[in-house]
Amino acid sequence: MNGNSTLGATAASERNRASMVAGAIILLDAVAARLALTADDTGVYVFGHPIAWECALRRIGLPCPTCGMTRSVVMALHGEIARAWHTAPGGPVLAAGSLMAAVALLGATLRHTPWPLWLRAGGVVYAATAL
């Protein structure tokens, strides 16, 4: 019986650690993006240098459903919510959702309580993608 409780405690500890790491990576990613990136109505810049990429769909003349999302997220991270919403409404929603997920994951660590699997899995997937 003691072996099972030890395994359960170890699994809970691992989940707690994964929540902490995922939440921290999401927040660090947002801070790094805020410091390194800027955006205007025409593009995104890394330390003032334009990122020279072009949407593959726009290049062949098709409308892109996510065009402007990068600019919108960067604007939202800089607190320009109205401008970000005008560029692409999903940007501020994505930025806010990511930050709320990070806070929730870190909160799970501080409270030492498990959060729903979808929240932990989503945070871990985002953190891995960000890395």
Could you give the topology of this structure?
Elements: H1 2-36, E1 37-39, E2 44-46, E3 49-50, H2 56-59, H3 69-77, H4 81-87, H5 90-111, H6 117-130
Antiparallel strand pairs: 1-2, 2-3
Helix pairs in contact: 1-5, 1-6, 3-4, 3-5, 5-6
Strand content: 5-15%
Average pLDDT: 82
Structural class of the helices, strands and pairings? mainly alpha
Using the CA coordinates, give the radius of gyration. Answer: 18 Å
Biggest sheet architecture: 3 strands, antiparallel
General shape: elongated
Q: Uncertain runs with pLDDT below 50, 5 residues or more?
A: none
Strands, total number: 3
Adjacency order of strands in the biggest sheet? 1-2-3
N-C termini distance: 39 Å
* Helix and strand run: HEEEHHHHH
- Binned, the helix content reads 55-70%
> What's the helix count?
6
Structure description:
This protein has 131 residues and is mostly helical. The protein is 69% helix and 6% strand. The chain has helices at residues 2-36, 56-59, 69-77, 81-87, 90-111, 117-130, and strands spanning 37-39, 44-46, 49-50. Strand 1 and strand 2 form a beta hairpin.
Jot down its keywords:
mainly alpha, 3-stranded antiparallel beta sheet, 6 helices, 3 strands, 131 residues, 69% helix, single chain, 6% strand
Q: Short summary of the structure?
A:
With 131 residues, the protein is mainly alpha-helical. Helix content is 69%, strand content 6%. It has helices spanning 2-36, 56-59, 69-77, 81-87, 90-111, 117-130; strands spanning 37-39, 44-46, 49-50.
